[in-house]
Amino acid sequence: MRRLLFITTILCSSSVFAESPNIVITPTRSETSLEQIGSSVTVISGEEIKNRQKENIADLLAEVPGIDVAKTGAVGQTTTLFTRSTNPEHTLVLLDGVAVNDPTSTAGNYDFSRISTDNIERIEILRGNQSTLYGSNAIGGVINIISKKGTAKPHIWTSLQGGSYKTYKAASGVSGRVDNIGFNIDASRFTTAGFSSFNKNKGGSGHDGSDYSNFDTRLDAAINDIFAAYTTMRYNNSRAEFDEFGAEAEDATHAKELSWRGAGKADLFNGRWKQELGVSYYKLDRDTTDIYTADQFYRGDRFGIDWVNNVKVDERNYATFGAETKYETARNTYLTDKQDQRTNGYFVQDQIKFAPRLFTTLGVRIDDNSAFGTKDTYRIAQVYTTEQTDTELKASYGTGFKTPSLFQLYSSYGNPNLSPENSTGYDFGFEQPLLKDKVRFGSTFFHTLLGDLIDYDFATSKYFNVGKAKINGLENFIKWSPTKSLDLKLQYTYSDAYSVNTHKDLLRRAKHKAAFNADYSFLEKGKVGLNTLYNGSRDDINFSYDRTTMPSNLVLNLTSSWKFNDNLQVFGRIDNLLDRRYESVYGYGTSGLAAYAGVKASY
Q1: What is the dihedral of CA 387, 390, 391, 392, to 10 degrees?
Q2: What is the pLDDT of residues 251-276, one digit of tens each?
Q3: What is the CATH number of the domain that holds 18?
Q4: CB 318 within 8 A of CB 30
């Protein structure tokens, strides 16, 4: 049976994405309206990505409720993310359905320093326990990054930009659709002299530069009314200089990252049974030059096959079931021999329409891992919309787990007897539209209990299961479009995350976080935007490895663009308008006042 599932798994995942902004895929692995989803989900649209003009996806995610971002210095430095104050490895990152969490890293998190906003159509951020549909790493949530498809008349575009810190970028691409074939291909080159990653206020000097070359493509083919296929590929070759913790150094890292997916789709019985069978592959090679220690290397890859079925049972039940297998390997400086592990997962979910305004989603999953055996998870989510006021009342409850990494299991510091980390969590809240949805606001309370957290024992120089953590928080937002030309959005998150063992706050998580965005369009050609991001005080570790409190910070950014015609556009932005000096990780610097401008031509 397992062999059959392994062979069969090439056709359905979260890679077929609907065009409507009100339709999402990630919460249910099927096209579902947001009004029918009880989970907490945020969508960053392609229009928002273009308006923000951010180079790195992490800078976009920093504005999302419930997400904290920590960066160790200049562009290209290690960038980690905390979803609802869980650990970085507790967020599963998907790129067109490919899991890109690093199989060679200590815990299995994804380093966002290498992923740009090039060719991204939308980002779906799903918060809360999601292991029932996605298996390991999804305790905090799932970030699903979706690339652009070719849909319109074929065209070529070119973009050039530059600015502070001797930053330059050139990009070009071709996109379109011919008959039943859609294509989108682009390439870019980015380079910057950067600034000192070791904070200048603490003794840093000089510059830590970085550069990358990026190439990505997507091809879609509609074979006939029943069958279709697609393939996506993204390749990144990056280099970055960095400083040691508490010291300036001429260290550097070089990484080559490849993600690929190919899939076929079948739409059977007039759309009542939809399938996708897909194969994915991820590979990461990293080399680090370190002046204080020996040079290090990291080699890892992951091969996956998945099969997802969406069946319309009747007008009240929409079932999703499937299976997937993942095989990953790793070898690095601390893993002298190549190590591997396989996980097979089987899941089933039912979306039930109890009434015209009452929707419930139930799901269960069993995972079988070669290192620790089986693990089962479950989840329930519900949403009810009141008839009188259109108030959406949402709630969810679920369990999750995180597989020990190959480093934690088999490195020179590893422990092959580790158990998977586990979690239980729930959230509940509401969303309220007003004035024909010109105004929408909402609030969600969330709670997560983490158990069997893996920690390092300095006495034995080994990893072991010991940690417990409790997280309570509140996510709030309000959106207002007073006119067709002006959009306003305010978001605020409160999070209380602490270790049950030590009763101390978890590091690098701000208790208070807020973001404000104002976007204004004028004369049908121009756009301006204001982005304000506030992070409250948070704990970290200083150079003496003692706990310290980092102060709060407020950062303002401006963006603008002008479209001369359908073929020519100019754009620019100012980062850190107030020139505030702050840190997101103790001892590491951040950008001061900086300006960038560019031009894009298409034909």
Answers
A1: 90
A2: 899 999 999 999 999 999 998 999 99
A3: 2.170.130.10
A4: yes
